[in-house]
Amino acid sequence: MIEVMDEGPGIALEHHEKIFEWFYRVDSGRSRDSGGAGLGLSIARWAVERQRGHIELESEPGKGSIFRIVMRKYGSLHQTSKIVR
To answer: pTM for the complete prediction?
Structure first.
């Protein structure tokens, strides 16, 4: 399992599944110059799922976010590392 935490603005529950969709951005008012293209999390999810893993999200507005990448190795869960930012 790889875990990434931040102290950002957090993500409201209604966006939790949508943020993994291609080109989705929580704040649609931000331009691509300042807010990205909405591809990062969709690419991450695609890559993880291709390896038979999944991404979990814990987040709520004002409290930051925790993303967990859980990979399977030889049919069982395998913990590899923890990254904290």
So the answer is: 0.72
